[in-house]
Write a structure and sequence with these properties.
alpha/beta, Arc Repressor Mutant, subunit A, Nucleotidyltransferase, domain 5, 5-stranded mixed β-sheet, 12 strands, globular
């Protein structure tokens, strides 16, 4: 069997390009691999034959498109490699291990103190990951990589650009700290970018090459995907949609500006307003449940938030003009009470207005697949599968 680590590591070798393409897609046809790798069909055919002979690639069921000869689906042998994803959350850490067929093999969650340090996180992750790997007959060094998802924008070399959610992490070099504890390739990205990768790998964006993801949760984040690649911008902070300014004289945002989108739509903003209804603190989950029940005050808060959300998305569409918006996060789970006024607001705040050009194609709106933080931790796994966000070079 060929060394899967070498195939993942070699960015130029044609066989490596095929293996990485299958890892990202999960199950692919030869035609899909020709398209995604840019290799000649004859080259793909020859290399697939070699990879099958070595046991690296397996034949799955055939796939029919309704006409012609059914296509053979191909997958990586699950036994050839494992990868892990880590969610570095507020007061919590979650670790998932998957194989190369995208099957979850292990899922562990543990609490941390709210303001835990990067060193504390690295030590706890090493301890828990060592135990979980051992249960699968592995060591950390056997993993194809570990992906780290964090609630902050990151530079290309893995430095935390902003420590709003985890205040002690601003400026931290993730590669320097975590490489001391995890003897394998490391990848890192912000949670919304990870969410987009999860939707592309397991969720609502399978097969989609171009879309914009908006995450409406405690804050507002997002991702821009172009030609199947999450766009990071020149310094790694692309798609910080929560900081689109709607009112320069509005409420102060934690970023230092006023009237940012998340000061109108973020869960923290909505929870503060909801507290005035009963004089008691309200969690984001309680807010969502009461909004689903249709309580009047909550319904109005959701409607107002959706109006601003559609405005922000309209600005995004005017600039990027994507064919698809994927909406995720706790507020997306409220359902039509949130998404319908959002889409109406979007139509009012984008060009051209629908009442002027009736037959103009409009972007689709789709609610993402995942609830809770599943998208973030699975997206951290997908960092390895897609070979995105590498921050060390072991």
């Amino acid at each position: 069997m060929q060394d899967i680590k070498e195939l993942f590591r070699d960015q130029e070798a044609p066989a490596g390009r095929i293996v990485r393409a299958i890892a990202a897609i999960g199950a692919a046809t030869a035609t899909q691999l020709v398209k995604s790798t840019g290799l000649a069909r004859s080259t793909v055919s020859t290399l697939l034959s070699e990879l099958k002979d070595s046991g690296t690639v397996l034949d799955l069921d055939t796939k029919s498109n309704g006409f012609g000869r059914p296509s053979q689906l191909l997958s990586l042998n699950p036994a050839t490699g494992r990868c892990a994803g880590v969610l570095l959350g507020l007061g919590e850490i979650r670790i998932v291990i998957c194989d190369l067929a995208h099957t979850v093999l292990s899922d562990v969650w543990f609490e941390m103190r709210r303001d835990y340090t990067p060193e504390e996180a690295a030590e706890q992750i090493k301890s828990n990951l060592t135990r979980e790997c051992a249960s699968l007959g592995l060591a950390i060094r056997d993993l194809l990589g570990v992906g780290l998802a964090i609630s902050a924008p990151l530079s290309y070399d893995g430095r935390v650009l902003n420590g709003d959610v985890l205040p002690t992490w601003g400026g931290v070099d993730l590669a320097a700290i975590f490489s001391k504890h995890l003897d394998c390739p490391l990848h890192a990205e912000n949670e919304s970018h990870c969410g987009a990768l999860a939707e592309m790998t397991w969720g609502a964006a399978i097969g989609e090459k171009d879309f914009v993801l908006y995450k409406f949760d405690l804050g507002v984040g997002g991702a821009i995907v172009r030609d199947g690649v999450v766009q990071r911008g020149f310094n790694g902070s692309a798609a910080e949609f929560g900081h689109i300014v709607l009112d320069p004289h509005g409420s102060l945002c934690r970023c230092g500006n006023r009237g940012c989108l998340q000061t109108f739509v973020g869960g923290y903003h909505l929870m503060r307003h909801a507290e005035s209804f009963g004089g008691q603190p309200v969690t984001i989950d309680q807010f969502v449940e009461r909004a689903k029940e249709g309580r009047l005050g909550y319904h109005r808060l959701v409607e107002d938030a959706a109006e601003k959300a559609g405005w922000g998305m309209g600005i995004t569409a005017t600039i990027l003009n994507p064919p698809l918006f994927i909406i995720v996060g706790k507020l997306a789970t409220i359902g039509k009470a949130f998404t319908e006024p959002l889409e109406k607001s979007f139509a009012r705040h984008t060009l051209p207005p629908p009442d002027q050009v009736a037959d103009m194609p409009r972007p689709r709106f789709v609610v993402g697949k995942f609830l809770g933080n599943d998208d973030t931790v699975l997206g951290a796994v997908a960092l390895v599968l897609h070979q995105h966000g590498r921050v060390n070079h072991q």
